[in-house]
Amino acid sequence: MSQRHLRRFTDSRSAVRRTAVAGDARSDARGRLRTARRRWSAWTVVLGVLIAGCATNDLPQSALDPAGPVAASQDRLWDLVFWIAVAVFVIVQGMILLAVFRYRDRGGDDIPKQVAGNTRLELMWTVIPALILIGIAIPTVRTIFELARDPGDQALDVRVIGKQYWWEFEYLGDDGQGVVTANELHIPTGRAIALDMQSLSATQPDPGIEENPELGQPVSDGVIHSFWVPRLAGKQDVVPGHIRRMTIQADEPGTYPGQCAEFCGLSHARMRFQVIAHEPAEFEQWLADQTQPADAASGGLAAEGQELFQSQQCITCHAIDGYETAAGSAAEVRIGPELTHFAGRNTFAGGIFDVDDPEQLAAWLRNPQEVKPGSQMPNLGLSDEQIEALSAYLYTLE
Ligand code: CUA
333 CA to middle of ligand 1, Å? Predict the structure, then answer.
């Protein structure tokens, strides 16, 4: 190889090396960037989870903020189990960390002492968990029995009926005077409310439904719902063909939101409701008002709406005092909510829309299937004028 060739050869080799080094540096940088990004993503997730646990106010559906004796006794049980779990976590993790750091491999060839079986340790890790489980089981079973106890004659009896996708509340006994509401359970404070719960389909023979194919899909049999007002009590499944009982009670007046907590179909997420607790005297007043007939529509647009209500298919499913639905007035055949005091409610359509928002009401009347898929409310093909008239009528129903 001539000097010239040799130089060129060396030059090209170092050029290759330079390129390789630059390439290494680039891929190193890329690798570092990737690691940094992964680390940031991991921290963001951890931080997000931690921060989510920091909210302290405006938690209308926190089971950790009980608002009555039933929820409070369930919460006490939760606290007990939580702190036991924290203690177990700290002790077990502490021992793992101790083992990892204190007995880590420090180089050298020493092989640790080999052991097989340790009776004392094995007894310990059998007996201690058994004691923990017994410690949790005793208060749990005691609480279950306490909560299942009949609240007695003082309680207000209310029948809760889960339907697709809304809740109906019927006040039973002399106290209740047969008042029926939808998606709003009004209760007095400081008094046990005994709930008789069931799931009914609106499927009982209803000539209106069968003769009007445009009234929508054939109505299915009842499905399982779950009644859940986190601040007042734990969940209770509502099962077709069974009566389930539970007691709730609120200490303070207020609005306690609840929701269906068991997947029950397309609009399961739109099956919400409110429990509204009043001072006892205020509650009695509310109940008395509910027994009053709806305000009669007073001419004009509202009267037009009233006429529409009766001539359209509305009356097939919705009762307003004085009118029964086409199928009668029993809970089994009430397909849609009773509307006597519609305008006095906060929400409608399973607690998802504001009664006070005329646009939401219009959207619902125009195309219920769009705003609440799978609901039993069919698209009625109403014109804007009809919607306006019906709304005007509904807003007279204080
Ligand atoms: Cu009803 Cu989910």
Answer: 19
Catalogue the E-assigned strands of the chain. Answer: 156-163, 166-171, 180-182, 184-188, 193-199, 225-228, 236-238, 244-248, 254-260, 272-278, 347-348, 353-354
Looking at residue 183, its amino acid is N
Residue 315: pLDDT band (50, 70, 90) is confident
Mean pLDDT of the chain: 84
For residues 213-240, one letter each, b for 16 or more C-beta atoms within 10 angstroms of the residue's C-beta and e for the rest, the string is: eebbeebeebbebbbbbbbbbbbbbbbe
Provide the 3-class DSSP secondary structure of residue 244: strand
3-state SS of 126-190?
HHHHHHHHHHHHHHHHHHHHHHHCCCCCCCEEEEEEEECCEEEEEECHHHHCCCEEECEEEEECC
In sequence order, what are the beta bridge partners of 379? none
Neighbouring CB atoms inside 10 A of 355's CB total: 17
Asked if the model's pLDDT at residue 152 lies above 90, the reply is no
Q: State which ligand 1 atom lies nearest to the alpha carbon of 225.
A: 1
Q: Is residue 235's pLDDT more than 70?
A: yes
Question: Residue 29 Cα, ligand 1 centroid: separation in angstroms?
Answer: 52
Query: Which atom of ligand 1 lies nearest, measured to the CA of 263?
Result: 2
Atom of ligand 1 nearest to the CA of 162: 1
- List ligand 1's pocket residues with C-beta within 6 A: 162, 165, 225, 260, 262-264, 268, 271
| 175 CA from centroid of ligand 1 (Å) | 29
* Cα–ligand 1 centroid distance for 270 (angstroms): 8
Cα 147 to middle of ligand 1, angstroms: 24
- Which ligand 1 atom lies nearest to the CA of residue 223? 1
How confident is the model over 284-308, as a mean pLDDT?
A: 84
Residue nearest to atom 1 of ligand 1 (CA): 225
Task: Give residue 309's pLDDT.
Answer: 86
Which pLDDT value is given to residue 243?
86
The whole-number pLDDT of residue 338 equals: 85
